[in-house]
Each structure stands twice: as structure tokens, then as C-alpha cells.
Amino acid sequence: MRPEHVSRIIRTAVKRAGIQEKMYEDRERRTRWKITSHTLRRSAASYLANKTGYPLHMLASDLNHRSVDTTGDRYVREDKVYFTYLSMVDFSETNISKTHRR
Question: Strand pairing partners for 79?
Fold first, then answer.
């Protein structure tokens, strides 16, 4: 399915649902809308990257990114990276309690 077709389907669905909002007009006086196929793509990717256990390399592949780093930089929140790091640290041999993690 071509991207233009997906965009058209989303525009129609959003209009029928009555949830579309105009954000602004650009320099060429084109209306920029709040809900687009791109915002849905980014929202879904952010959700998968930060709220689920979906593997980052698979998300990168799904988004057709050449590099997993691109996906991580754009979609993974910094605190998610921190928590992922903490989950790999073995606190059993230290005097730091696991309950002190955020």
C-alpha cells in the first residue's frame, strides 16, 4: 500500500470521527493538522519503544531505519535508557539497595 493511500485513509477516518484540529498554516499557507499518518507512526513507535518489551532492533526494522541507533535516538526516552541500564546491573554484590532505584 502506498503512503499516500494510508494518509488518505487516516485523514478520512479522523475527519469522520470529528477529532482533527488545525495546528497552524506554514509559510506556503498549507494547513498543518494535529493528527496525520506521521504522528500516528511516531506515537506507535514511541509507545512500543517505551511502554512494551518490543525489541528495538525489530522496531528499527519495522520503521525501515538503517540503524538501530536512529530508532533509539528518536523514540527511546532518556529515562527508559537509564532504567534499562539499571535492570542489567547486579546490585546483589553492592551495598546499594534495589529499592533506591527510581
Answer: none
**Mean pLDDT per 10-residue interval, the chain, length 102 residues:** 89 91 92 90 90 90 91 79 46 44 40
Give the span between the Cα atoms of 36 and 34, in whole angstroms: 7
DSSP letters along 42-59, please? HHHHHHHHHHS---HHHH
Of 37, 36, 40, 41, give the one whose Cα is nearest residue 64. Answer: 41
Q: Which of 40, 32, 45 is nearest to 3 (CA)?
A: 40
Q: Which of 50, 42, 38 is nearest to 77 (CA)?
A: 50
Q: What is the pTM of this model?
A: 0.65
